[in-house]
Design a protein that fits this description.
Blueprint: E1 11-14, E2 20-23, E3 26-27, H1 34-43, E4 50-51, H2 52-59, H3 67-85, E5 91-94, E6 97-100, H4 108-117, H5 121-125, H6 139-144, H7 146-166, H8 170-183, H9 188-200, H10 204-222, H11 228-238, H12 261-270, E7 278-283, H13 290-301, E8 309-313, H14 326-336, H15 348-359, E9 365-371, H16 374-377, E10 388-393, H17 398-403, E11 407-410, H18 416-427, H19 429-434, H20 436-446, H21 450-462, H22 468-478, H23 484-494, H24 498-507, E12 515-516, H25 517-524, H26 528-540, E13 545-548, E14 551-553, H27 556-564, H28 571-596, H29 620-629, H30 631-643, H31 647-656, H32 658-664, H33 667-683, H34 687-704, H35 707-724, H36 727-744, H37 747-764, H38 767-783, H39 787-804, H40 807-824, H41 827-838, H42 847-863, H43 867-884, H44 887-900
Helix pairs in contact: 1-3, 7-9, 8-9, 9-10, 9-11, 10-11, 14-15, 18-20, 18-21, 20-22, 21-23, 22-23, 24-26, 25-26, 25-28, 28-29, 28-30, 28-31, 28-32, 30-31, 30-33, 31-33, 31-34, 33-34, 34-35, 34-36, 35-36, 36-37, 36-38, 37-38, 38-39, 38-40, 39-40, 40-41, 40-42, 41-42, 42-43, 43-44
Length: 901
Amino acid sequence: MDEQVKEPMNVEYRVLGPLEVLRDGVRVPVPAGRGRVLLATLLLRPNRFVSVDELVERLWDGEPPTLDRAHKTLQMVVRRLRMALGDANCVRTATGGYLAEVDPERLDLTRFRRLAAEGEFAAALAHWRGEVASDVASQHLHREDVPPLVEERLVVHGRRIEADLAHGRGAELVDELRELTGEHPLREGFWAQLVQALHQAGRPAEALAAYEQIRDHLDDELGVEPGQPLRDLHARLLDPASRAGVPRQLPVGAVHFAGRDAELARLTEVTTGGAAVVITAIDGTAGIGKTALAVRWAHSVADRFPDGQLYVDLRGFEPSADPADPAEVLAAFLGAFGVSGGRVPVDLPERAALYRSVVADRRVLVLLDNARDVEQVRPLLPAGRGCLVVITSRNRFTGLVVREGAVPVTLGLLGEDDAVALLTARLGAGRVAAEPDAVADLVAFCGGLPLALAVAASRAADDPGLGLRALVDELRAADGLMTHVEAVFATSCSRLDDDTARLFRLLGLTTGPDISLDAATALDGRRRAEVRRSLQTLARMHLLVERSPGRYTSHDLLREYARSLRETDPAAERLAAVRRLLEFYLHSVDSADRLLRHSRVAITLCPLSDGVQPVLFEDSAVAAAWCETEHENLLAAVGLAGERGLHQHAWQLATVMFGYLYLRGRPSERIALYRVALAAARASADRYAEGITLHSLGNAFSALGAFADGAVHYAEALRVREEIGHLHGIAVTLDQWAINHAMSGDLQSAKALHERAIEKRQEQGSPSGLAMALNNYSMTLVGLKEFDAALAANDEAYAVVTQEGMAELAASTLDTRGLLHLERGHLAEAVATFQRVLALPDDQLPDAIKTVTLENLADAHARAGRAEDAVAALKEALLLREDMGNEKAAEKLRARIAELS
């Protein structure tokens, strides 16, 4: 008789609702009390180590008994839990802690995440049965662990609704979205979706009413306007003819703006002629309110510029950062109009010319804030008759007045009436009227400087019990040691709690234009919720500005003041804070880079300090968008690392930024960055890092078309890598240097370097590296018309690809084979090979290779006299080139199509 085979046990764990363990569909009793807290804590971190100290913190809600007793009790709780779970036990011991070892398909949380990542949003949300671990009694767990999961659910919920809206199901979503906006009244994403749903449902009046509802709510609760996406949506509803993608970059205006009636009237007067581009230059001292005035006026006339409003902070007088590069600003402006990637010229004059062409027939408002000098702004001036430029600066731009006909508007100190109006807007008429003498003294003390008045008013508003006379006395007492403006800042800072005051000082160490909540949390070292509260306090007291939700900046006078307080904190603490910030950026960019490029140098990153939580990405589009948002901060971080002597952070951050910078298509920017990284590598005498950064500089120069400079850096990289015996690096540099020669037309030199690269790949024993080196060699041999040798190299490359199962290299290897057939005149074989490439699955056929293959296929068809087939292939290639943003290549394809049609 055959032995009966026992069916495998089916265990399922659930935390998205009441905590449950099911064995073959039957609920397994989980011990009450600390046993449930322990299991829930581990399952909320599936397959991740959790230290004994953290578990003790959870099990006793932050108030454990003596350490020895807590550890012994924890061991007892673990034993009881394991006994209760029996063969469904998932608790494993690790050094210094425990983990829940579970199959991701057996836990509802990991299934939820997998389905969400795959775009199955409705199926993912179906795993939620209620509040997370709803029957687990632990304040600590529900305060620390649950909120991030609730946020995950809301994000997925929003994505599911986005998908439904994309399919035109707005009418079905209205009730659901009204419920969600009621539960989450400050979550703008749900409000935007409600507005869209009502619009889709043919209820435009209700859509506009919903926008006004969230606008009023944000103003009442937070004193802010809706974010840019919601404002753009509102604008499209008001003007259905307006085009999608129109840039609307103006910052949110100051909530408590007052006065400046004469200046506002002057701006309106000089810009109402309808003539060619008008340039208005607003100048005045620091803190005088130039930006506030410009932004307020720009918003008042924005409807006159339906084709877009552009804004940039040129950082002309930033104490801790370089002024913005006009070339980079132009690239960003062009990107706002859909011109990106390969369509953006390298040289500044060409970029400026393209920018002027793009806006020539448009009505666009351009606000250039905090400009340093005429040379910085002149390339940014449009030429269209319907355009308007507003510039703010501490300097007077006489050159613009003379050459471009700019209209100067000099901003002076606030008069007494305007200053009192500002205080009244912030403190209320009753409080100001109650102490007229104190108000007069306060205005006099602040010298009519709007920034000082705003900070002082915020100090008073933050403490309703503080009399204005008492505030004036406080300021006068502080004034004995500093200037009036510093006294105002110092008085406000003196009222901050210790942690918030420390964060204010630490922010003075940063060099980027702004900072996110996540980055500020790393800089500070406290918990995210605590840092958020401190940032909100600083914003409320006008010591920071929340530029957009979760992103903060400060006036350069305030940042300079924060920097002046640096000695308050020990040098070691300041360095540790900078280190944490750099580690946050480094590990976040590394996570993005892993998605943005598949082939990359493997480096061991600087370790994360305790408590630093980088942003981790699972979607390449999200990763690229984050890098774009943080772009200026990342560049600044590399410089900051170099200045602070954190050389390893500097070169590693530059290295892991490669994938994003390569996609961004700005080799000149990469050159500047890698020069800083090279200096850091050499300062630390790290030869390995020196080799990497020299090689990266070679790549950047080659991408720029500066092949001679590229060759110099490849040669130096090769020398360094040979001296330290870095075999992989030697092979890579030889191969890239060979490609650099081939691109410059020196095929014989390229051939010699390819042969050396192949030798090193064979010595290294890297199949993928050998296949790429052989394929690159084959392409150079095709260019030299050495067809037999090219075929032999390509055969060998394809044999390695096939033998090692490297599907990702099959397309490029086969495309080279097709090109070889084409150049030999074997047209039928060429067509068959190219079609074989195009038949590969999408995940094995990158767009870059597919495009080249289509163009080669078109060439083969054309040579065979099949013009119609050639045009069909070229049209498909054209679509890809346009999607990739390579306008130069696209233009060539259009010309080729016209020639064959």
